[in-house]
Amino acid sequence: MKKQFLRFTALSFCFILFSSAAFAQNRPLQEPNKREADLLELVKLNKTIKLDIRYARTDNFVGKVVYPQARAFLQRPAAEAVVRVHKQLKKQGLGIVIFDGYRPWTITKLFWEVTPDAQRKYVANPKTGSKHNRGCAVDLSLYDLKTGKLLPMPSDFDEFTERASPDYKGGTKEETQNRDLLRKLMEAEGFTVNANEWWHFDYKDWQSYAIYDISFDDAGSLDKKPKAAKIVEKKELKKFFDDAGVSGGIYIYDLNKNRYTIYDRKRMDTGFVPASTSKIIHSLIFLDSGAIADETETLKWDGVKRWVDDWNKDHNLRSAFKVSAVWFYTDVSKRVGKEKMQKYYDAAGYGNRRTNGFGEAYWVKGDLRVTPREQIEFLVKFHQKRLPFSPQVISLVKDIMTEEKTEKYTLYAKTGWSDAYTPQVGWWVGYVERGKEVYFFATEIDINKNEDAAKRKEITRNILKSLKILEL
Predict the structure, then answer these.
(1) 214 and 234 share one domain
(2) Do 307 and 173 share a structural domain?
């Protein structure tokens, strides 16, 4: 039966990849106020944990490679609990072998689509997501530390038969003892066995985490926290500000090296009104909440003349973002409502999260504050799709943010300017992708006259060129 199922799923897999009639749902369920992803790679916690990631090979129920890499991640508490079980087993000459851990939501969607209705009790429905998507489910078994061989169990991994049940009575004495030992140790560490699969265990805190669709590459870099990064202050960067005749600071974060290169350490953790840089999160909120149908939905200009000529016309999200049309963002914010906006702020951990003055441009003249470091931390999560928004929404806003694209790099950015304070607040924030290298930046300057506004980009570009992040 398994061979027949493999043939069926292999054909179905190809059909889904190339058919326009694929499953309609294209985004995971969004759940606010969940914990931030803190995925740890199991083999980095203990090198004697064995991997048998069959989804990175063809010997799985799909019959195709579905994981680009043979890696296994879990949320920190679950990962640490698995390591404790592994250490207990080592006393008996045994160890843990991992079949699967955190699973991106798109893979769950694929599994559902290729599985016949009669077998779907063995896979999760993408409409509600799985505990694997939350990083709190692990598929595992036992192996002999000396021989490296798997211990006998009543069934193979991902065998869709009655033998897979954790309560199956038809196995040999050795198979049953091995299965029950695994279950006993896992349950002692806060896991619950799946009713249909002896190898599948769910961690007790799974409801605290959201459904994630983070790639393995990004999951592997989650431990590179900006707050733990090395900070190198280069006082020689002051020259760029002096030459432009303004005061300010710049903060550049190298994701791969987990290192900041900065000028003006004091400003790094000083809160400033975000002004139009907040249009990044606001655009995400508008699309994710359904306040606008898509980035092309046009709002009629109300006919009120405003000080920026480009604002005085109809706008959609894409055009409003480019020219920072405040009236568009104010109007759509009202559609969302203060309570829902606040929930999104809280879920994303945006700045000091204050929405006082809602109904007007509170992000320009209200109590909302964000530091240069927080700007970068937000953008890192944005880049890694770790924010509480669908991956599709994040990808769309990223496209809207595109400032410049060359053969060697792509620059994504947003300006910000508030004249409600003295000196006025000027921002340019964003990031540069150069192949696998990613550099985030936040420049904040004091604007004393209108001509200073253009210096936000001028200073930043010159510094990025001097550091060879942008091409000269």
Answers:
(1) no
(2) no
